[in-house]
Amino acid sequence: MTEAEKIDNTEEKKSVNFIEEIVRADLAAGKNGGRLNTRFPPEPNGYLHIGHAKAICIDFGIAERYGGTCNLRFDDTNPVKEDVEYVDAIKEDIHWLGFDWGDRLYYASDYFPKLFDLAVRMIKEGKAYVDEQTSEEIAAQKGTPTRPGTESPYRNRPVEENLDLFMRMNAGEFDEGTLTLRAKIDMASPNMHFRDPIMYRIIKHPHHRTGTKWNVYPMYDFAHGQSDYFEGVTHSICTLEFEVHRPLYEYFVKELADESYCPRQIEFNRLNLTYTVMSKRKLLQLVKEGLVSGWDDPRMPTICGLRRRGYTPASIRNFIDRIGYTKFEALINVSLLEHSVREDLNKIAPRVAAVLNPVKLVITNYPEGKVENLVTENNPEDPEAGTHEIPFTRELYIEREDFMENPPKKFFRMTPGQEVRLKSAYIVKCTGCKKNDAGEVEEIYCEYDPDTRSGMPGSMRKVKGTLHWVPAALSKDAEVRLYDRLFSVENPAEEKERDFRELLNPDSLKVVTAKIEPYLVETAAAGNHYQFQRIGYFCVDPDTTSSHIVFNRTVSLKDSWEKAKTK
Ligand code: ATP
Ligand code: MG
Fold first, then answer.
1. Which of 140, 252, 414, 472 is the 20 to 30 A CA-CA neighbour of 105?
2. Residue 496 carries which DSSP code?
3. What pLDDT sits at residue 566?
4. Cα-to-centroid distance, 37 and ligand 2 (Å)
5. From the CB of 239, is ligand 1 less than 6 Å away?
6. Ligand nearest to the CA of 45
7. CB 238 less than 6 A from any atom of ligand 1
8. Which ligand 1 atom is at minimum distance from the Cα of 242?
9. 165 vs 181: CA distance, rounded Å
10. Is the CB–ligand 1 distance for residue 271 below 6 Å?
11. Are 294 and 304 within 8 A, CB to CB?
């Protein structure tokens, strides 16, 4: 069997995206000695977000799928914005998503010496020169796609002078913003990136790994392709905005590569999601200005924010699978992500009772002081999940919204004269309520039918509504953080006229004190997922202490994606 046939036999063709098609074809053709090596190249200047997850899933995923390897390479070429805090967080998030780089951890800064040597060689070969113009002057000479640029007056400096200046730039003799090293390519090229791009600039800020060793730092375009080459990367998968950089990527790589091996850049559409922003600069601004509680604020689209919110790695990966990889920019409805989260939590989250807006319910014919430990299923979706007990007492809490004194038609919950089922307990009939002077309901009264205990034949009686409840004296208070979308407009990035901070949703966080059942008090540990029956999925926040339990709402039960689909 040939390599190509082997691949065709192991994978179903129809689920293959265009990137996989390229990889399969290259493997089948025996390119690069039949090797597959990808890389994920984050710049450690912020935390990873769900957009990066899309890149991670293809970079690591495709290597896993086709027997290749994937490097983690920190693209740390700008010391001003970078920090080890970000390096550590990025590693943690990739592991949490379920991927591993093994011993393939690299830094672009590892290649500073080799890149410097290459720059020196290019100077010697007349392919690079030191420019003394400011960045404004250089920009003004760039021209437009239809009008050629103007050559720098320093373009034809002798090699010796270029070499001397470049060495002195690195020795720290010149200030930031004065000299640059530029590639001497073509100021009239239709590709703007070929108009003598900057290879090196002076930066005097210490680097988090190399300290003050360097005073010149390579630009992205002069570092990325070569780093790929140094590591033996075969497929350099990135987002569409780099498509216009590809010829330059190839130009610099050709300075190093030969016939036997050459990395190849492939671009896909980035992930954009409704009701959020994905720019690291903006996310950093939200954090710095205290508009969110931190990078891991559960409203943030960051991986650590989603984790704290209660999203699972499986739900994120399923979502990424669903949206796929194409060549077309799109804005993805966040309700599809929420749908994937619900789908996963539905399988794994124990069902528990929590009352978010409690009002007391008194069962007037139930003995005072009596406690019955009733059995309730942990997860109807998972027969292995077992059961737990919930104590039933004369006084309970139910949701205030579940009672109406004068309800409209088809109100199947608690109202005088009507029967409802209390989940895993009894059928009760409402007899009335007590109100305070302001007209607010203070207590609701009902009578239970002892023959309708859950599991007994009498419980088979048909009633339309089932309510969740917790025992009044035996329940505990918990803080519940109800999160909503961070922005109130669908596409904040599109609203160019307004500062994105004005578009924040003022109601993105509401905090309530809920009553929770004893089982939940006993089991709640940071990171645990639960379904609060009839309400939504919640997870235990790390702010939780032994005396104060905090929950985050992950997602409500109502699935707006299913609704949108059937419209
Ligand atoms: P910056 O604006 O700082 O360049 P960035 O989001 O591009 O931010 P990087 O750390 O350079 O951040 O990104 C690492 C990798 O993740 C790149 O290959 C990039 O293409 C990819 N990536 C970034 N944002 C997205 C996104 N929204 N969807 C898919 N991939 C993304
Ligand atoms: Mg980038």
1. 252
2. T
3. 53
4. 20
5. yes
6. 1
7. yes
8. 20
9. 9
10. yes
11. no
Residues 6+ apart with CB under 8 A from 441: 359, 400, 403, 405, 433, 434, 435
In the reported structure, the alpha carbon of residue 181 is separated from the centroid of ligand 2 by a whole-number distance in angstroms of 22
Give the pair of three-digit tokens for residue 143: 């021209």
| Residue recorded with tokens 């100021």 | 187
Pairing of strands 216-218, 198-202: antiparallel
What is d(CA 319, CA 338) in angstroms, rounded to the nearest whole number?
A: 9
How long, in residues, is the chain?
567
CA of 319 relative to ligand 2 center, distance in Å: 22
| Cβ–Cβ < 8 Å for 424, 382 | no
Q: Does 43 contact ligand 1 (Cβ within 6 A)?
A: yes
Tokens 């007899």 -> residue: 431
Residues with active-site annotation: 43, 270, 280
Domains delineated in the chain: 3-268 (3.40.50.620), 274-350+478-566 (1.10.1160.10), 354-468 (2.40.240.10)
pTM of the complete model beyond 0.90:
yes
The CB of 280 under 6 Å from ligand 1? The reply is yes
72 lines ligand 1 (CB under 6 A): no
Do 248 and 226 form a contact (C-beta atoms < 8 A)?
Answer: no
Taking the centre of ligand 1 as the mean of its atom positions, its distance from the CA of residue 241, in whole angstroms, is 10
Residue with tokens 């190249």: 41
The ligand placed nearest to the CA atom of residue 49 is: 1
Ligand 1 atom at shortest distance from the alpha carbon of 237: 18
CB neighbour list of residue 205: distance below 8 Å, 6 or more residues apart = 79, 80
Indicate the residue type of 549. I
CA of 504 to the centre of ligand 2 (A): 25
Tell whether ligand 1 has an atom less than 6 A from the beta carbon of residue 52: yes
**In contact, 17 and 324? CB cutoff 8 Å:** yes
pLDDT in tens, 363-410: 999 999 999 999 999 999 998 999 999 999 999 999 999 999 999 999
SS3 279: coil
Q: Look up tokens 């059928």; give the residue.
A: 427
Q: CA–CA separation, 341 vs 352, rounded Å?
A: 18
- Amino acid code (one letter) for 255: E
Residue indicated by tokens 């967080």: 89
Give tens-digit pLDDT for 355-370.
999 999 999 999 999 9
Q: Crossing angle, helix 18-28 and helix 3-10, to 10 degrees?
A: 150
d(CA 194, CA 252): 11
Separation of first and last alpha carbons in the chain: 48
Q: Give the per-residue pLDDT at 14.
A: 53
